[in-house]
Protein 1
Amino acid sequence: MLLKHTTAEVAERSALTVNPAKTCQPVGAMYAALGIHGCLPHSHGSQGCCAYHRSALTRHYKEPVMAGTSSFTEGASVFGGQGNLVQALNNMFTIYNPEIIAVHSTCLSETIGDDLAQIVRKSIDEGKVPEGKTVIYAPTPSFIGSHVTGFANMCASMASQLAEKPAEEAAPLDQVNILPGWVEPSDMREIKRIMKTMGIPYVMYPDTSDVMDAPMTGHHEFYPKGGAKIADIKSSGSSKATFALGAWASEPAAKELWKKCRVPYETLDLPIGIKATDRFLAKLSEVTGTPVPDSLTAERGRAVDMITDMQSYLYGKRVALWGDPDQLLALSEFLADIDMKPVYIVSGTPGKKFMNKMESILGDVVPESKFKNGERADLFLMHQWIKEQGVDLLMGNTYGKYIARDDDIPFVRMGFPIYDRVGHSYFPTVGYMGAIRILEKILGVLMDRQDRDSPEESFELVM
Amino acid sequence: MSSLADNEKLKDDILDIYPAKVARKRKKSIVLNDPGEIPEIQANVRTIPGIITQRGCSYAGCKGVVLGPTRDIINLTHGPIGCGFYSWLTRRNQTRPGTEAGSDENFMTYCFSTDMQDPNIVFGGEKKLKKAVKEAYDTFHPKAIGIFSTCPVGLIGDDVHAVAREMTEELGDCNVFGFSCEGYKGVSQSAGHHIANNQLFKHVIGKGEEKTEGEFKINLLGEYNIGGDAFVLEDIFEKCGITLGATFSGNSTYDQFASSYSADLNCIMCHRSINYVAEMMEEKYGIPWIKVNFIGAESSAKSLRKIADYFGSQKLKDRVEEVIAEEMSAVSAARDEVLPRTEGKSAMLFVGGSRAHHYQDLFTELGMKTLAAGYEFGHRDDYEGRRVIPNIKIDADSRNIEELSVSADPDKYNQRITDEERARLTEERGLEFSDYEGLMPQMEEGTLVIDDLSHYEMEELIKAHKPDVFCAGIKEKYAVQKMGVPLKQLHSYDYGGPYAGFAGAVNFYKDIALMVSSRVWGLVGAPWEKGESLSPVYVESGAPAVTMTE
């Protein structure tokens, strides 16, 4: 047994986290920054932070993840990291020639109180930022929130520091803003396809498609062709509306756009599953006055057809989920809608809304469900719940494989990080096509299990 | 493609793009090798901010590398969640717990953290740490708990050592000890190794009562059982009749560390990460150390012979020769099979603090040439040999790492070998004690040796020399491969291995042969990108058959 010390008896813990269902802010900020074209993310802290974050993202995407670090030493930690950051900016612009550098802080630089705004200003004043180049920054203290918070903070900085306030009398541009949230490059590509199919002009950021799924060409493109263009992000201040997908990852940026540029916003769930996608398309249609085209309605029909066809394999199946709140809320609703029972849900990411929203999704349909978020809402707790009463399916990041193996439970990988399988960067889970992909994965593992466990006489050819 | 003769110019070209100050500093870390007269290389100095380095931090070296592979110590990270999360199962330290109750503990699959929050940073985290230690003890009942400090811990002044002392006393049967391995300590993972060595030495080694029994007792130091390397070596030692007391720290347990003082010889694999323990054990317990290398079949044979020479027993020498002969027949067969595909090809190695050296032996066995190499966190002695240690200037970053003063243990000190015998073995058998010759003497004249390679330097090296395989880590892997050059990860072995010992050499031969002869690289680039003409069969008189829309 790989997790042999995990027993069903849940002991109250008030200080110890075991097997976390979250990581820290900076990795989210780094991922978000990679969604700007020509951007070099920069970690203002010890080297280890940058090394860990680059490694985590690289293992998840199997792609180069370029980023700089301020390489704090003991001296910088005592006297402040200003010198390190100014030097780093100069070196990175000179050696790696990015269009933009997106700096995020770390627990170290936050603890000593480095002021990123002031240091960046100083670098500009001292001529360390070449003409026409840009630096943005986001505070991402690791001791607050989670990796999702860091992603949200960097997106908020893109909005507040790049988006330009339109002139008083200027008419808004004929476009909307999409803040896609922390999703895969495949999902960002899919959202763009949906917008194109709807025929709605849009600006989306961040956009990691064609960055974190870059083609093999025989050359290392330090700045791949994808990513939101700075000019587009600038123009987002003049858009007619903002659609923030995912309250945790995207709402802070939408709020910044409202505060700075008075762009009204709608916060929606991530369009994962049927109903959340319905709401996204309906809202897009309502706000822009664009009808949902038949082709998307047909996609919806295909997804629902698959669900109704295969309903008997899904009905009543107990599922344990872990990951990030935006994904978990939409996914739980979807699973409940297809007659599955999301019984155990944990997310290390804090936020009071989580419990209320989950209650409203599951309270009536899966009254036996247990869910928790924030500190100590970890995989150890979830595994203990599973030991108490088992589940038919696990859905979450790679770390679930230890539970899956120990307790012999079918496992669908979803979320961050996925270190041990590929596909997530290429096949979306958002939209109706994403729903089909999720269904295919769920049905695949459940039916494989049935094939493995059925007695020979009831081994089925047709299922 | 450049030749070695062009390296001087390549070095100048590389430095050319850097701002003047950076160029001045990097110049000293980029050296054209001369094995005859080893040049000085700048190493173990601060990385220049913004340069894009391979390096990690002190915490990674301490918790991740040295203590990570010990299965029955609860490694509790004191800090915000990230550090614990990223070091959770991401190194491939394999372990084989026992099956009986009492020997079956394995906490390596778990991640333990105090998950410090804002108020802990503002008001201090000691209280939470104490509680977390208590909760870990109550739930898991480990015999030892290590507390690992992350960056904010040192800055806010949490005293992890005081907490450890207090909790050891309170818990009674659990040894709790702390590590001040904040990420900003030192200049790389290396500082963390040293910190880990110190604390292991202070709090664990020598605390065991049980003595390892056996005729030829050794410890293996600096072997972390990546991909099962230590398992291979355990098998070899067993075959030879050599008793392995403790491995630091692959497939290890707390008790093995505690009683490791009773071995008669310390054999060091990774000199960088563990030489401190070897030095201190010699002073305190009288155990001599020798450098070994079990990467490469020839090196493995040589290392076994060194051990046999040390013990001097004819029975052991004979047995070792038998084992070598037996193993070598499989090795030769495997080598003969792959040589046509590997011979004459080239490699570059930029990794770790010993691997960039050790793996050159395997490439030599494959008939492959090492064009350039360097360490991520090595020191000058790892490049130039330990003889330069007295000349290494101790800078502020190194001075901050504690140097323990050690003296002979009144009860447990036992000089294993007389000075005369030692001198005789060196003289007659070429057995060097307490020595490591470093990487440079082995590399060809004119090859580039570069410490703490930057990403930019890496790309320039590859463009200039087009090696057939590049060895580094996960952060470099896909950038290099996008350039059309296969990258072999020498931290994780690309999830393959083991590569140590004779069986490991065979695995490595096969993996490298596949890498340098793979057909997949031939798929890079579409035919129309490569300018291959597409014959327009359906097009009459130059007009397209269909009209393109939009």
Protein 2
Amino acid sequence: MEYSEKVMDHFANPRNVGTIEDADAVGEVGNAKCGDIMKMYLKISDDGVITDIKFKTFGCGAAVATSSMATEMVKGKTIQEALQLTNKAVAEALDGLPPVKMHCSVLAEEAIHAAIADYYKRRGLNPEEFMGACDMNCDTCGKH
Amino acid sequence: MERVVYSDNAATTPISKNVYNAMLPYLTTGYGNPSSLYSLAREEKKAVDQARMYVAECLNCEPDEIIFTSGGSEADNMALKGLLFRKNFPKNKRHIITSAIEHHAILHTCEFLERIGYEVTYIGVDEQGHVKMDELEQAITENTALVSIMAANNEIGTIQDLKAISALCHSKGTLFHTDAVQAVGHMKIDVKDMGIDMLSLSAHKIRGPKGVGALYCRKGVVLEPLIHGGGQERGKRSGTENVAGIVGLGEAMRYAKEHMDDYLPYVASLRDRLIEGVLKIPYTRLTGDPVNRLPGTASFVIECIEGESLVLRLDLAGVATSTGSACSTGSLDPSHVLMAIGLPHEIAHGSLRVTLGEQNTVEDVDYLIEKITYVVKTLRDMSPVWDEKMSGQPMLNLFDK
């Protein structure tokens, strides 16, 4: 199993590591079996733009790299744009992932979704109205 | 310039100068086929015989009890399949006993044997990795053909009480094989004194070349060959001999027998220095038996970090180590050894194995301690699990799912 240079770059020098004290949204997903846990902190402006994003990740090289890449890809984007981010896009931006590591990119996508759901909930809104029904099947949210 | 420290000697070892020098003639001018009659091949025949002698001397057995193979895996396969597949083997003897922490060369062979109708019992181990003797005793029946228990574990370094295990096997009338790939050259092995009927070993774990190993098979234990052909190795393992490899193995074994008393204490002192240094990292534990462990093997679990990340970052720092974390195995579970010694998933994910050899130095060890400490801190700084642990709210709910 080999990681691409991009994966190694984002693993060795991860972007946006840390926490945001007064975050507007926090999303946390984890897969107990594989031992990956991602936590993302978002600052979201009144007009719905992700102005800042930080993450903390417990996991393998791919988990760290996908967290890092996903935060880069949604920073400065609107919530609606961020919701369009797919795991495939994250993996492609990293020049691919080994097949056994694709689930890490799924986790990164879900961490962003979980944070945005938290954002709506904090505003007293039902996330499902904006994000579609939760299929309760992502196996990573840890909140169900 | 940054240092580079090779500290994954349980995976493989660098070829030593003496082994290289011994092999070189058989990679250049000494190309004769040992089975040939003409004088050109006589040197090769003699070299193979000499190597066989060295291996036998190191194990305290007869030279004709040594069968050269392509390595440890073949020797393991030969011990198990060769015994069961032999002509006129008692029809009732269709049961094998092994342990839960064996190398895959044994475990996957056992799984294959199960698929074709044999019965296998996997004996559990205690939290230090010792085979449970009462479980073993109960498992042996009159149908048991063989007990195969590794001499020392490749992940946690625990050394089994071979003498007690063989005594138990023999008292119940069954044969005993040991996969000693990690043990040979790293501890004293006397097959007679230890009551071992068959033993597998590999050259590249003791600074010999890859692709060569041997099976010790006590006189009186008859095996069906796995490889039929020209009848080399007294008909037990056909195929033109890997002369250079066998010479390399012989030289590695000669060196081990002669110098073990010097290098074993040295390597153990490096290991102990390393263990002491790494255990200063909070929430870090040693795995395996703290005393009866391989002299070069230091194995840890470090909480709130994940092993693959740790190994990759150590690699960036010029340090070669390994882990039994799930993310390194390509499956969802951490290594079967870490599971067998009862570690919970979330702890086993943070496993680190550092295996030292004679070529390592005190400076290497101090560099290892420095880099491991630094990388663990870096990873914990970005670990949400560490944050939760420090704030007193362990995220166990996430692990328990």
